[in-house]
């Protein structure tokens, strides 16, 4: 170590670990701890070296404001506590604020319809992920919810469209349907039905009337063709 290093350490110890007689009656607190680390301790004890708020513009502003001083909208300040203590206090208040909305929303949600999409063997150790690409869209003009998804085991060349009216008491025609791409992009009817078969990589609503899909050619070779297609819902 250089003399400069020794001086730096000595200055640090002198500044932060001086004896503090006023703390002798507190077990294990006979000196000032490092001022940053004390804020990060996960404990409810008071800080050994609380910050000096004298001259702080925000505290002076609150002190001189009749309306803000006792406002319930301001989170209380604990100058003697660590950040962990303040975090727990804030989490408790947030949880309390969310209890009523969670209860009201929870009681307002109910099952409108149950659709069986696929069945799997109960004996399998791990359930395969068959439901893919769920994308939600809300058509505010027609008040209809849409869900786009694919089912891997059923057919990778199909994309399913589920739609429900936002008013659960009403129904819409063709509540669920599937669009199969297959070989619809073949240049002629003479091409083999298996020569250019496509599956859906991704699908999103472009707007209320159009669905954008990314298709890939189902061939095991380099340079497989990708197609970006826009399909009208009509």
From TrEMBL:
GO terms, biological process: anaphase-promoting complex-dependent catabolic process; cell division; protein K11-linked ubiquitination
Superkingdom classification of source: Eukaryota
GO cellular component terms, A-Z: anaphase-promoting complex; nuclear periphery
Family matches, as InterPro entries: APC4, APC4_C
UniProt signal peptide: none
Keyword field: Cell cycle, Cell division, Mitosis, Ubl conjugation pathway
Domain Anaphase-promoting complex subunit 4 C-terminal half WD40: start-end pairs: 136-234
Name of the protein in its database record: APC4 protein
Protein species of origin: Onychorhynchus coronatus
């Amino acid at each position: 170590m250089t003399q400069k290093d020794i001086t730096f350490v000595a200055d640090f110890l002198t500044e932060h670990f001086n004896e503090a007689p006023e703390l002798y009656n507190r077990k294990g607190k006979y000196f000032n701890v490092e001022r940053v680390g004390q804020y990060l301790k996960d404990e409810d004890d008071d800080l050994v070296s609380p910050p000096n708020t004298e001259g702080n513009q925000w505290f002076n502003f609150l002190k001189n404001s009749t309306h803000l001083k006792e406002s319930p909208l301001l989170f209380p300040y604990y100058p003697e506590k660590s950040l962990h203590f303040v975090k727990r206090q804030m989490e408790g208040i947030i949880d309390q604020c969310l209890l009523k909305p969670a209860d009201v929303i929870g009681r307002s949600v109910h099952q409108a319809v149950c659709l069986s999409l696929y069945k799997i063997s109960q004996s399998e150790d791990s359930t395969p992920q068959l439901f893919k690409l769920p994308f939600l869209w809300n058509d505010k003009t027609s008040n209809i919810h849409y869900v786009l998804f694919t089912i891997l085991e059923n057919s990778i060349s199909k994309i399913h469209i589920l739609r429900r009216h936002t008013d659960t008491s009403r129904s819409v025609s063709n509540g669920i349907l599937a669009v199969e791409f297959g070989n619809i992009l073949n240049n002629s009817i003479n091409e083999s039905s298996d020569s250019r078969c496509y599956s859906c990589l991704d699908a999103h609503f472009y707007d209320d009337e159009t669905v954008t899909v990314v298709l890939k050619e189902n061939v095991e070779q380099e340079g497989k063709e990708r197609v970006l297609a826009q399909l009208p819902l009509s």
